Amino acid sequence: MSVTARSTPNIALIKYWGNRDDSLRLPAADSLSMTLDSPSVEITVDHADVLTVQSFEADGSEKSLKAKDITRFARHLELTKKYVQFLAEASPLPANVSITIRSQIPSSIGLASSAAVFGCLAKAYAGLIGVAVTTPSSMTLTDEQISVIARMGSGSAARSIYGGFAALLKGDGDAMGTSHAVQIADENHWPLHDIVIVPTQKEKDVGSTEGHALAWTSPHYKKRLDQIMRRQKECTDAILAKDFEKLQRVTEEDCWDMHNVMQTSAPPLKYLNDETYRITDAIEELREREHLPILYTMDAGPTVHVICTEEAVKTVREFAHALQGCTIFETKTGSGAILL
Ligand code: DP6
User: Are residues 313 and 166 in the same domain?
Assistant: First the structure.
């Protein structure tokens, strides 16, 4: 019997960058994000004789997957089986599965599709395990366990399991399950808008997976790790207290710090472009002029996420649409991965 799940990307406020174990994606530090309510990905999984992965774009056309993508799904399935076996002492997951991905996420717009895909796949695997309730090896996974499965496919995906605001905790040691995500506040706590400004839709040269492995080569990385716990706490406090000014300060500080690490790694990773800097300068001017609650942040690409409250959304929308040559995408706080 097949199982289908739906998930969405998230936008990091305290960034995940660098692992202590790249193969298990055990992060070097905590991170924190807001789950978005769109665009979504749906994945259907079913028992199969061999692993198959098919991916479809929003217009229904089939996306051709690279050998490296298939390998990532195969490795993720093996890790998931190992982890579930460790939990249950008998794996209720089939030896092989068919994976069918239907994505509404336009590629290369700077919305983390891997977070949505692996968040979704983890939820679907949990569903597949739960469906087998009649078999002695079936089990119900907790959200924390599902977040571990998501994390092993894409670190940031662990956070997309939850709605609202979620933290990925680094944990200690080298066990697969030591790092998992937790919810900080649900999607009704503090609804915020994310106006996504995409200056260029060019595919990036170095993906996050390769990028994480370079983090330790930056002379600034050690200092970054020393600062993260303080930032993580400030960000959590700001969210719980709905203190936008505090959230803005710590989010932007962490964003520039991560890009400083990226730009000083060997080789340097320059994800931002001139357009990004022009947009962030303009947002700072707009914020000062209008005295509005607006913040910006960028992941591993030139796309600028402008996050704001209801009070500021009209102004931000007008600002974004007046920019020449940019694609604009609007989203807001969302409710996390679900089984359909
Ligand atoms: C800059 O989770 O995309 O967006 O585990 O290799 O898939 P992989 O990396 P990924 O890294 C995200 C990096 C980031 C910051 C963040 O989302 O926290």
Answer: no
- For the Cβ of 31 lying below 6 angstroms from any atom of ligand 1, the answer is yes
Q: Do 135 and 231 share a structural domain?
A: no
Domain span at 90: 3-189
For 65-74, how does the pLDDT look when each residue is reduced to its tens digit (9 = 90+)? 999 999 999 9
| Nearest protein CA to atom 4 of ligand 1, as residue | 299
Query: In terms of domains, do 130 and 147 share one?
Result: yes
Residues 101 and 9 in one domain: yes
Asked if the structure places residue 314 within a domain, the reply is yes
Judge if the beta carbon of residue 212 lies within 6 A of ligand 1.
yes
Query: Considering the chain, what percentage of its residues have pLDDT values greater than 70?
Result: 96
Q: Are the C-beta atoms of 98 and 74 separated by less than 8 Å? A: no
Q: Give the bridge partners for 54, in sequence order.
A: 100
Q: Which atom of ligand 1 is nearest to the CA of 10?
A: 17
* Count of C-beta atoms within a 10 Å radius of residue 19: 21
In a domain, 340, yes or no: no
> How many domains does the chain fold into?
2
**166 and 202 part of one domain:** no
Ligand 1 atom closest to 300 (CA): 1
Q: Answer for the pair 246, 238: CB distance below 8 angstroms, yes or no.
A: yes
What ligand 1 atom has the least distance to the C-alpha of 31?
Answer: 18
- Band (pLDDT 50/70/90 cuts) for residue 35 is very high
Q: With a 6 A CB cut-off, is 114 part of the ligand 1 pocket?
A: yes
The response to whether residue 26 sits with its C-beta less than 6 Å from ligand 1 reads: no
**What's the confidence (pLDDT) of residue 132?**
55
> Does residue 272 have its Cβ closer than 6 Å to ligand 1?
no
Q: Which two tokens stand for residue 18?
A: 């660098």
**Of 139, 173, 189, at which residue does a domain stop?**
189
240-280 pLDDT, tens digit per residue, is 999 999 999 999 999 999 999 999 999 999 999 999 999 99
Q: Domain holding 215: CATH number?
A: 3.30.70.890
The two beta strands, 97-103 and 52-56, are: parallel
Q: Which atom of ligand 1 is nearest to the CA of 14?
A: 18
Dist. CA 243–CA 62, nearest whole Å: 44
